[in-house]
Amino acid sequence: MQAGVRIAAVFLFSSAQAFGVEVMYATSTPTLVTDSAPAVLYRVDPLTATSKTIGPIKGPGGESIYVAGLADDPATGRLYGVTSPRSPTNPNSLVIIDLASGDAAIVGKVGAAASDIAFDHKGTLFAWLRESNQMATVDLSTGLATPLGKPGPPGERGAVTIDPQDRIYVIGTGATGSIDGFDLSTGALSKGPGLKGMPFAAGINSMTFSSSGTIYAVNTNHASPATALLVRIDPSTGSVVRVGALPRDTDAIVLIEAPRGLSDFLTRGNVSILAAVVCLGLAIGAIVVLRRSSERQPR
């Protein structure tokens, strides 16, 4: 019997590593000055925008932290966030967020207001700096941003995402603007297709790429509190499809491609897949044990 359990455990672990499950996370940032509600970390179904609360986003001392952008480090699986300039504590800072609880560890000051962040597949973290209308790279050990290219006048909040081929996309001209490309060699934006069919004309808070090549974004009406929608954007045409309503004041989203190992798999809450894998693993283990037992019996 012990052999069967061991076989089931090995099967479960290898299967958890093999399953490529995209999971979306989002944060809400209260917009009302008088709103005492904390910022919240959610898990979101990218097919319907249905959300499940994980917990409030809190610093080491239990203080509330407002997160404006999220990005998943492809090398370590850590979820990084950049805090809003409106955060009651640690504004304009880089943080690491616990996916299971929402607790945040402070890395350091970014040195500017970053409205969104994204990793490339080499592990470089990029941030969009609204006040200077330019891209920056962020040091993961200190949190400090290094601007790229020439600064410009302050613009819209801006959102950034990076596709599987490490092409960088920016929406820095609002929900009625365009989805542009960023050239690392020149530090300049190249104008892309105009956005078509965005439900709210007010703005885009953040973006994230799926492995299928679709961009997901948070479209907001910038009210207080803000109504937020999850939308899909075709990066080649700029066409927009509404997915569904997100929790009010949703600010940042990120798609995490796949669990990295069993503990990460369990943390990210893949319950239905886990149940199926456990049953299949136990069945295989039982078959192996029965076969070994029959082989040992004298004929």
Show the helix and strand layout:
Elements: H1 2-18, E1 23-28, E2 40-44, E3 51-56, E4 67-72, E5 79-83, E6 93-97, E7 104-109, E8 114-119, E9 125-129, E10 134-138, E11 145-147, E12 159-162, E13 168-171, E14 180-183, E15 188-190, E16 203-209, E17 215-220, E18 228-233, E19 240-245, E20 250-256, H2 262-267, H3 271-296
Antiparallel strand pairs: 1-2, 1-20, 2-3, 4-5, 5-6, 6-7, 8-9, 9-10, 10-11, 12-13, 13-14, 14-15, 16-17, 17-18, 18-19
Helix pairs in contact: 1-3
Transmembrane segments: 271-290
Protein name: YncE family protein
Signal peptide: 1-18
Q: Explain this structure to me?
A:
- This protein is α+β, with helices and mostly antiparallel strands.
- The protein has one domain (22-257): Neuraminidase.
- Helices cover 16% and strands 35% of the residues.
- It is built from 3 helices and 20 strands.
- It has helices at 2-18, 262-267, 271-296; strands spanning 23-28, 40-44, 51-56, 67-72, 79-83, 93-97, 104-109, 114-119, 125-129, 134-138, 145-147, 159-162, 168-171, 180-183, 188-190, 203-209, 215-220, 228-233, 240-245, 250-256.
- A 4-stranded antiparallel β-sheet has the order 3-2-1-20, with no helix packed on it. It has a 4-stranded antiparallel β-sheet with strand order 4-5-6-7, with no helix packed on it. The chain has a 4-stranded antiparallel β-sheet with strand order 8-9-10-11, with no helix packed on it.
- A hairpin with a 6-residue loop joins strand 6 (93-97) and strand 7.
- Helix 1 (2-18) packs antiparallel against helix 3 (271-296).
- The chain is globular.
- Mean pLDDT is 85; it is low at 7-19 and 267-271.
- The chain crosses the membrane at residues 271-290.
- This is YncE family protein.
- Keywords: Membrane, Signal, Transmembrane, Transmembrane helix.
- Residues 1-18 form the signal peptide.
- InterPro entries: WD40/YVTN_repeat-like_dom_sf.
